[in-house]
Amino acid sequence: MSIALGCIADDFTGASDLAAILARSGHKVGLRIGVPSDEDDSPPAPFEVIALKCRTEPVNEALEATGKAADWLLAHGARQLYWKYCSTFDSTPAGNIGPVSEALMTRLGAKQTIYCPAFPENGRSIYMGNLFVGDVPLDESPMRDHPLTPMRDANLMRLLEPQVAGKVGHIAWPAVAKGADHTAARLRELADIGIAHVVPDAISQADLTAISEAVRDFPLITGGSALALDLPRLLAAKGSIKSTGEDITAPSTGKGNIVLSGSCSAMTRAQVANYSAAAASHRLDPLALASGGDALAAARQWLASQDRDAAKIIYATAEPADVAAAQEKLGRDRAGQVVEDALAVLASDAFDHGIRRFVVAGGETSGAVTQALAADRLSVGREIAPGVPWCYADRNGETFAITLKSGNFGTEDFFTRALDMLH
Ligand code: ADP
Prior knowledge:
By secondary structure, the chain is of the alpha/beta class. The chain has helices spanning 12-23, 59-75, 97-108, 156-160, 173-177, 180-192, 205-214, 231-237, 266-276, 286-290, 295-304, 320-330, 332-352, 363-372, 414-421; strands spanning 5-9, 29-33, 47-51, 80-84, 113-116, 124-127, 130-133, 136-137, 167-171, 195-200, 220-223, 257-261, 280-283, 312-315, 357-361, 377-385, 388-395, 398-405.
């Protein structure tokens, strides 16, 4: 089987989000953590999503990583590529959204692409080229003060222009609202005057449907995850994938479960409190872990003494004041690293204890845990919450289930819901 749509995502939980949305179609979706190695001879799924970590990397490194991902996808038959970034267009003035798009366009011989981070269901809409988060422009939203990619302008054309060499244009909402044919005609008009990079307005999922129909034959599509919702149906209609669902089956896995949480975001804090009320819990303290004492040994011992099948959670999740205190003593990176290292060891221990169901909270944390479990190839199953699917991977010939939840995703009872879904 060859790939119908090859996707490249600029971060890990963004990749999982896109994979979950594509998997809603019932078609098989593969999620690869990093570019697969040459030895990886696993058969590709009709939808493959490669998760990279290149959002804030220097442009050259992002170009190299995305180039390699494109190589792999095209070598495995991908006929179209999808470049996925955040619905808040997270990028620096130097890139990487524009430069990567332009390089992929050159690679594919594409004269034009679109930029559509809109995700109306989550309050991200684009009107007259301006990106809104809820009811405020992007540059008035909390993204204004993001530590790595502060967004100080809401106008996507202005954000894109310094990132690309080609001309940037716009399709205003009244044109998009007239539907797919009209949007396609506007795209052709813009192509005729040499406009390579087009920002279409989108304020509803219906707008995204019109846009995705208009671009369904584009060699490169770029956007957030919501734009991809209709692509499986459109690709099936034009025969790029076998008609309807190959039905993603949830493979059976062993039992034994654990929640590992390294996220300190508000929703995760509520989720940890909710779950800990009825589960055995063990808290990791970054200061104790960093002191070189026996904090990690104690956590490992605690885990070894637990009933494999009972509800349990290990977390470093803490209130902002505690996080700040740990960061002040250890530095932000080291505080994060000691927690990630500990959770990685504990994930691997958990597998050795026979645990086959893992709920992981935190984007960086997810990276550490998947690496520890050598889970670089996941098949995507049912969605637990919007954008968060159960995934399945093999280790030592055994299948295990894992879900990777970024900070603010899911409802308060997410951990219980996730595990209940496997019963
Ligand atoms: P999110 O998806 O919520 O951003 P991440 O896992 O990406 O979660 O990031 C959380 C970071 O905070 C990780 O690097 C983690 O190791 C670190 N961390 C977790 N607990 C603490 C703590 N108590 N003090 C300081 N840093 C912490």
